[in-house]
C-alpha cells in the first residue's frame, strides 16, 4: 500500500490545487480521496449518502478494501479529508459516480448528470473538472454541455471562444482488492476536451500517480476504458465456452487450459460461474450501445458469460436428480456469494444468479455460506428452504456442494471433508 504521508507541509507543491473535491465516495472515489489527502492535498469528499459521510468523518471506510480503513483514518485525523453531502468550492472536481445500465442495456447517465448539476453552482474560473466514471464515448462532451447550460457566466471547452474551466476524462482502472496499490502504480490515460485540459488534469494526477500519465482526447480515453473491460469479458467468455466444450468431450478444462498456457503466445483466462461486478458485466454494453451493428463478438461474449449461471444451476439440478440417496431430497451447500474471491461485493454476482436459478423444489434445503455476509441478499431471501449457514454446519448437512466464489477459507478447505458428496467446483480450486 502507498505510505501515508503527513499533512500539507509548508512549500508542498500542489500545482495550484489548494483544494480538491471528489464527488462520489464509493469503491473508487473514497480510495482516491484518501490517497490524495494522505499525499498532503486538502480534499473534500462529496456523497449523497449521509451515513457514508458520517462514517468517513469518523475516520471509517464504509466499504471493504484492504488497508482503506487505515488510510481514511489517517486522512481525517490529519484534517486533510472532510466528507460533506453538498459540493463546496474547490480548484478541481473529480467525478467518480456510478454509471449503470437501464433494463435494455442502455447506459444510464443520471448520476453523472446529477453530479454535474450539483457542482455547477460552486464552479469558478480556473477550475478543473475530471470525469472518472466509466462512460460511453461522448459523455465528457455532454457533461461540458450540461455545465455550460447551467453556468452561462463561465466559458467551457467547446462552448465559447475562451475557456474558464478545464474539462477532462480519466478512467479509473483499479482492481477491487488491490485498489490502493493500483491507484498509485497504474499508468493513467487522460483525455482532455482540449490539449490544455489534458495537461491541467495531468498536473493533478501527477501529484499522486507513480505510473505514467498518457495524454489523449476525451473520446479516445472513454473508448480505451470500455475496450479494456470488453477485452477481459471476451477472454473470460472464451474460457467459459471452452469449459462447456470440455464437459461435452469429457476433458478436464483446468488441465487443458494449464497445458495450453504453456504455449509462449497463449494465455487463456479461467472459467467460472459467470462474470460479475459492476464493470466487466456492464461496460461492454456501452460499446454495443454506440455501435450495435458492428459488435457481434462483444455481444456474443456477453451472451456466453451471462448464460453460465443458468448452466451451473442446471448442473446442480442434474446432481439433485442423480442424488444417490434416492427417496430423500438432497441438501445443497452453495459456497460464496461475492462476484469474486475475498471481497464483500455482491453486485451483478454470478454466484447469486446461480442460486436464484436453482429449482427450490428439488432440495430439502439450500444452505448458503458467505464469510462476508450477515444476511441473505433480498433476491435470495424469498427462496423456500434457503438459509445462510456456516461452513461447518453446511458441510455436515450437504449431499451436494457447489463452489461458487473461491474465497480463501474455501480454497484452504480440507478436501477430505467433501468425501461422499456430489461436488460442483465452478472455479476449479479443488481439482
Ligand atoms: N473472472 C473469471 N475468470 C477470470 C477472471 C475473472 O471468471 O479469469 C470473473 C471474476 O470472477 C468476476 C469477473 O470476472 O466475476 C470480473 O472480475 P475481474 O477481476 O476480472 O475484474 P473486476 O470487475 O473486479 O475489475 C475490472 C478490472 N478491469 C480489467 O482488468 C480490464 C479493473 O482493472 C477495472 O478498474 C474494473 O474492472 C473497473 O472498475 O472497470
Give your account of this protein's structure.
This protein has 431 residues and is α/β, with parallel strands linked by helices. The chain folds into two domains: 20-211, 3-Layer(aba) Sandwich (Rossmann fold), CATH 3.40.50.720; 230-425, Rossmann fold (3-Layer(aba) Sandwich), CATH 3.40.50.720. The protein is 38% helix and 13% strand. The protein has helices spanning 29-38, 50-57, 68-77, 110-119, 139-150, 179-185, 195-205, 218-249, 253-260, 284-290, 296-321, 350-356, 378-381, 391-397, 408-411; strands at residues 20-23, 43-46, 81-84, 92-95, 128-131, 166-169, 188-192, 213-217, 331-335, 365-369, 386-389, 400-403, 422-425. An eight-stranded mixed β-sheet has the order 3-2-1-4-5-6-7-8, with helices on both faces. Strands 11-10-9-12-13 form a five-stranded parallel β-sheet. Strand 5, helix 5 (139-150) and strand 6 form a beta-alpha-beta unit. Helix 1 (29-38) crosses helix 3, helix 4 packs parallel to helix 5 and helix 8 (218-249) runs parallel beside helix 11. The longest helix has 32 residues, at 218-249. Mean pLDDT is 94; it is low at 1-9. The structure holds ligand SAJ.
